[in-house]
Specification:
Structural class: alpha/beta
CATH architecture of the largest domain: Alpha-Beta Barrel
Number of domains: 2
CATH class of the largest domain: Alpha Beta
Order of helices and strands: EEEHEHEHEHEHEHEHEHEHEHEEEH
Strand order of the largest sheet: 8-7-6-5-4-3-10-9
CATH superfamily of the largest domain: Dihydropteroate synthase-like
Largest sheet: 8 strands, parallel
Helix content: 40-55%
Length: 352
């Protein structure tokens, strides 16, 4: 079992963030905030998929006005993403944001920061201090990559000092890069220095098919070390996929409980003498209709089949025209391979 890093608890609306509470999955609306109907629909789709918090961009006064209407119809607490304007931050807080995100690279004036903090305190909301590597770089006198972690930590420390002087501690921290190693190293450094909850993510992971590997490596490494209290997988595409990928990463580490069945499939080799992949795809369609934890294994031959069957609720393998069915590691049937799918379906229906 992973021992999570101890932090104090941050409250964002109805959501609790910190080591004593489940890791919160976040995502972000991909439409303009002024498109109220589509924004609400996407927020509620994300909530249904398992997101605990959803963020929206509010670059203009029209966006914060729309944000106030969206808050009334959203099924989860909302975060307002503040870019350069302290006025937008104040407006978003007053519009009902449960949390806002400030980037020290974008809002630097202490008077502006203090004004935002005082408003957040009055409305009892949370704030994330979110540093992106790209936002703190001076491209005219660029900081070498090897020194950017130190720069991010320095910026974070300075910003936190402003918040603490103002008596505000309901904060979450994040340090992000599009580089996997720097994201890992920066978060480890921040975790060692501060005891505030951490939000994990890569700034730009890519298209969904390209995002899964870097996101899994970065987030998985940090989560295995007990680091991370909220998580967002940034992909260019449907944000529901962000939630689904996050769930799978967390579930693989025992950090997320899901009712979705798990399908284990043999990678196949020269021993496999049947259309295992086609069979597994049909099994997946059966499992898509089930809403309860169930581990099903589809194996290519009798070499690994019995061993995998021992860890599955139900398992099958095939060889020489025969199909073998196992339940909780015990062989319960040997049937013609042609009847294997129908027999497996019956066994799944019995369990589910």
């Amino acid at each position: 079992m992973i021992k999570r890093r101890k932090t104090h608890t941050v409250t964002a609306g109805s959501v609790k963030i910190g080591s004593k509470h489940p890791i919160v999955i976040q995502s972000m609306v991909k439409f303009e905030t002024t498109d109220i109907a589509r924004s609400v629909k996407q927020i509620n789709s994300l909530a249904a998929a398992g997101a605990g918090l959803v963020r929206l961009a509010v670059p203009t006064a029209k966006d914060t006005a729309a944000f106030a209407k969206i808050v009334q119809r959203a099924k989860v607490p909302l975060i307002a993403d503040i870019h350069f304007s302290p006025d937008r931050a104040i407006e978003a807080i007053e519009a009902g944001a449960a949390k806002i995100r400030l980037n020290p690279g974008n809002i630097k004036n202490i008077k502006d920061v203090n004004r935002i903090i005082d408003c957040a305190k009055a409305h009892r909301i949370a704030m994330r201090i979110g540093i992106n590597e790209a936002s703190i770089r001076n491209l005219l006198h660029d900081t070498p990559a090897r020194r950017r972690i130190d720069l991010m930590i320095k910026e974070m420390a300075g910003y936190i000092k402003i918040f603490e002087k103002r008596g505000f501690s309901n904060i979450v921290l994040s340090v992000k890069s599009s580089d996997v190693l720097r994201t890992i190293e920066a978060n480890i450094a921040i975790a060692e220095k501060f005891d505030y909850p951490l939000h994990l993510g890569l700034t730009h992971a890519g298209l969904a098919e390209d995002a899964i590997v870097p996101a899994s490596v970065a987030m998985g490494t940090l989560l295995q070390k007990g680091i991370g209290d909220t998580i967002r997988i940034s992909i260019a595409g449907d944000p529901v996929q962000e939630v689904q990928i996050a769930q799978k990463i967390l579930a693989s580490l025992g950090l997320y409980h899901s009712n979705a069945p798990q399908l284990i499939v043999c990678p196949t080799c020269g021993r496999c003498q049947w259309d295992l992949v086609g069979f597994a795809q049909q099994v997946k369609k059966l499992l898509d209709k089930i809403d309860r934890p169930l581990r099903v294994a589809v194996m290519g031959c009798v070499v690994n089949g019995p061993g995998e069957a021992a860890d599955a609720d139900i398992a099958v393998c095939a060889a020489a025209g025969k199909g073998f069915i196992y339940k909780k590691g015990k062989k319960i049937a040997v049937i013609p391979q042609s009847k294997l799918l129908a027999a497996l379906k019956k066994e799944i229906e019995k369990i589910s």
